[in-house]
Amino acid sequence: MEKNFKIYSFNQAYQAPEYKWDAKNGFITWGSDNNYPQYLIDLYNINGSATHKSIINKKSRLATGFGIKPVTNPELSKFIKDKKLEKLFRRLEKDFEIFNGYAFEIIWNNDGSDFSINYVPLHKIRIGIQNEEYSEPHFWFSTDWTKYKKEEYKPQYIAKFDPNIRKGKQLYYYTEENPQADDLYPIAGYSSAINWIELDYEVSKFHLNQVKQGFAPSFILNFATGIPTEEEMDEFYRDFKRNYSSAENAGKIIITYSEGADGKPELIPIQLNDSDERFIMLQDMVEKNIVMGHEVPPQLVILTPGKLGSTDERKELLQEFQSYYITPRQEQLEEGVNEAVSLLGFGEEVKLNEYKDVENKDNKQIIQ
């Protein structure tokens, strides 16, 4: 029987990043295109979900928004102020929530008695491959890895942090443990919710374009001009996909010309029954899955009319969230900074405040 149709897949679901050992250039790629972290940044900034961004910001404020606990050692207190550790913690924590890892560099002075400590954007770091030229663990830094072959973006060598070496520049690199990460690049804590984060964004674009361009049902487009060849089907598919697929092209008008009524294309509408209710259900599913992926109590993120909960209930949820999520994250941030600070002989550790440790007029704004 002659086949008179083809089925095409428009599947663009999220796929986990791949890592490749690029021996020629001496580093391990982060994603098949070596630009996976930028994808996560775009999910946060422009191509993601308002719920996703709100959760990341809330986590960051809860972890570092209340500053550093007072210390008893006046020299350590001066060090914290001079090195701007509160600002460093805030920047590290934002990377920690987006990527599930963070990095900072320490640069020793000439005699190894002191160092400067600086935030390093994690997405600009790639893990170096040990070889004859670079036998010790190391990293490479580039301001733009999509252009790293150009001279102005040429990767710069950074040695891995070693507490026994007090010279030059070193990078402290921390990633959350994950059985699939193989001690390489971190895997975002919300990775299981990335499809839902993208879906939230795509649905919002679809609705916006439908409103801007007018509402139109989905349809089957049938040409009564004979059955084309496989090559003609493929060519038409490519043209049609380029011009009419994706949210940006929703609601476009197709204008056709034919010689007589028999050859005109036929648009067969596919009626979506109860579409409003279906989108309401979809939005509810999207929000719930994003919140679950982030391990956040839904009541702290999704405000449902009539179910806001009392102040005591929110405090109880915040305390629970602090104990099982925020406190462990604070400890992981403190671990890295304190490992560096301890090299200067400070016996006291730097600790971050919990939201309940500080009472001031800004608390309400920070935790909401």
Mean pLDDT across the residues is: 84
Give the proportion of residues in helices: 25-40%
Number of domains: 2
Total helices: the number is 9
User: Which series of helices and strands comes N to C?
Assistant: EEHHHHEEEEEEHEHEHHH
Content-based structural category:
alpha+beta
Overall form: flat
End-to-end CA span:
64 Å
Low-confidence runs: 1-10
C-alpha Rg (nearest Å): 27 Å
Largest sheet: 6 strands, mixed
Question: How many beta strands in the DSSP annotation?
Answer: 10
Structure write-up:
Strand 1 and strand 2 form a beta hairpin. The chain folds into two domains: 21-195 and 321-367, no CATH class; 218-270, no CATH class. The model is unreliable at 1-10 (pLDDT under 50). The strands form three sheets. A six-stranded mixed sheet has the order 4-3-8-7-6-5. With 368 residues, the chain is an alpha+beta fold. The radius of gyration is 27 Å and the shape is flat. It has helices spanning 36-45, 50-64, 74-82, 85-99, 194-213, 230-244, 275-294, 311-341, 363-367, and strands spanning 21-22, 27-28, 101-108, 115-119, 125-127, 138-141, 156-160, 169-175, 218-223, 265-270. The chain contains nine helices and ten strands. Helix 2 (50-64) packs antiparallel against helix 4, helix 2 packs parallel to helix 7 (275-294) and helix 2 (50-64) crosses helix 8. The longest helix has 31 residues, at 311-341.
